[in-house]
Amino acid sequence: MALETIDIVIVAFYAVALFAIAFFVSREPAGHTKDTEDYFLAGKALPWWAIGASLIAANISAEQIIGQSGQGFVVGIAIAAYEWQAAIVLLIVAKYFLPIFLERNIFTMPQFLETRFGSEVKSIMAVFWIVLYTAVNLTSILWLGGLAISAVTGVAVLPAMAGLAAFAALYSLYGGLKAVAMTDIIQVVVLMIGGFAITWIALGLVGGDRGALGGLSTLLGEIPGHFNMILEPDHPKYSDLPGIWTLLGGLWVLHFSYWGFNQYIIQRALGAENLKEAQKGLAFAAFLKLLIPLIVVIPGIAALWLAQNGQLDLAALSKTPDSTYGTLMTLVPGGLRGLVFAALIAAIVSSLASMMNSISTIFTMDIYRDYIAKDKSETHYVTVGRITAFVAMVLALILAKPFLGGMESAFQTIQEYTGFIAPGIVAIFLLGFFWKRANREGAFALLFSSVVLNLMAKFGLPDMPFVLRIWIVFLICLVIGVIVSLLTSPPKEDQPVDVGGISFKTSIGFNTASLVIVLIMTLIYVFYW
User: Fold this and answer.
1) What is the domain-level CATH number for residue 176?
2) d(CA 496, CA 490)
3) How many CB atoms lie within 10 A of CB 401?
4) Residue 272 backbone phi and psi in degrees, to 5
5) DSSP assignment letter at 46
6) In the prediction, which pLDDT does 289 show?
7) How many domains are contained in the chain?
8) Is residue 5 within 8 Å of 13, Cβ to Cβ?
9) Distances (CA, A) of 187 to 25, 184, 287, 345
10) Residue 176 — left, alpha, or beta (φ > 0 → left; ψ -120 to 50 → alpha)?
11) Quick one: which of 135, 187, 221, 339 is 20 to 30 A from 4 by CA?
């Protein structure tokens, strides 16, 4: 599919506007040199609207748009649990976790683990997160993004990935988190407009003369099985989304690991002006999360109907579901196609930029500054952060095809890979927050158990759905962490978190927003059970 002149103009205007905003917000006042707090935490001056928008822009990447559209084609609305349940998790993180993080005045998640369990735990987790973000998350965003760009433009996947990587690096390396977060405002606007446009067009093609709303009615009437949030045990994809266990089990562990203890996400909240701004930002992001399935899952369901009715290649889409979104983009008329294409690019490059910034933050602040070059200047550490981000991107480009090229569904595969350590991560933070007796030995034991137990269950019980496996492993990890902590020496006096001195009270506005979001979630599950 070729882009017309008007499409190219729209994409070019988007790119120029993005670069202009990035460089404008990255400027420093006369006489001030950018330090680590400026570069990695945006000077701790982010307002709530920037935090919320940046959270969504960082989260909604090629993995979500391409992967969840493909799963919408295969499974249906049930895959939206990954989005809708996240809204509840964001509210819990805002109310109960952020006060602890901000009270500890940290830059990174490994730094919290150091203050709570010691430098050994911090170092292990810092290395783990750097490897995970580079070899899994960054590669997945590049690979799926490259597939989508290739489907739309005809450019080969590798050059498409290289172009996306260069775009993200050019606007984010200089300004750091501030450039990323502030430009994410325009990224989210473009993403939402372009996303709703392709949903409206896809539904319009289904509805014909009855329009998009008629198309939605057709989908509900003719493929009702794709509008079940809870899959039955005989469903072909039950192993990926095991019915009631998506609501009661391990999916929550994945959510808390991602939204609560993931540097890539939580770094925006750490850069907030204050706790209230951070909490408002997460509530804003929770509202936006409710909209995401409308722009990533519904188009995939529409694509299934179109394929079943001969308007798309059913065999091709069934073989490679991750090509669904790119195929739908070929149906968008010229002019509007440029906006949708810009939205796709926005989703990809904002996530790439965010991931690069998080990798550089952890490496610079937790590895390089502590073990390689202590007592260097702030300018030196900022330079190291920029170099680290660039190197991580190059490595991801090299690893993307070998790691992800042969996978049937990159989205589900990534969730399962992440699930090997997610139970241990959630367990170590929860015990670290709310149980003073938790110690270093208990932390090591539960982290080790998370990996070993998951591997044993995966190969010993291959038919067990991974969401259920993660839930069982999480519960066992909690028990192991408690037992080992009780059998060994207590932590140092200054290590436990004194939650008695931390206020978890939230504003009336936050509480009202939380109530509305919970009500909406309840209604969704009632209507589409």
Assistant:
1) 1.20.1730.10
2) 10
3) 16
4) -75, 155
5) B
6) 92
7) 1
8) no
9) 15, 5, 17, 9
10) left
11) 187
Residues facing residue 46 across a β-bridge:
272
What one-character-per-residue DSSP string does 177-225 give?
Answer: HHHHHHHHHHHHHHHHHHHHHHHHHHHHHHHGGGHHHHHHHHHHHH-GG
Check residue 338 and give its pLDDT: 82
Domain hosting 237: range is: 5-25+35-410
d(CA 374, CA 367): 10
Identify the residue whose tokens are 């249906």.
Answer: 76
d(CA 310, CA 308): 6
Q: Is 93 a domain residue?
A: yes
Residue 475 belongs to some domain of the structure = no
Q: Is residue 124 part of a domain?
A: yes
Element spanning 431, H or E? helix 422-434
Return the bridge partners of 272, or none: 46
Q: Which residues contact 375 (CB under 8 A, 6 or more apart)?
A: none
The SS3 of residue 488 is coil
- Where the chain has pLDDT below 70, the residues are 1-2, 28-34, 42-43, 62-63, 403-418
Q: Give the total residue count for the chain.
A: 529
Does residue 376 contact residue 112 with C-beta atoms inside 8 Å? no
For residue 315, tell me if it sits in a domain: yes
Give the tokens for residue 74: 């295969």
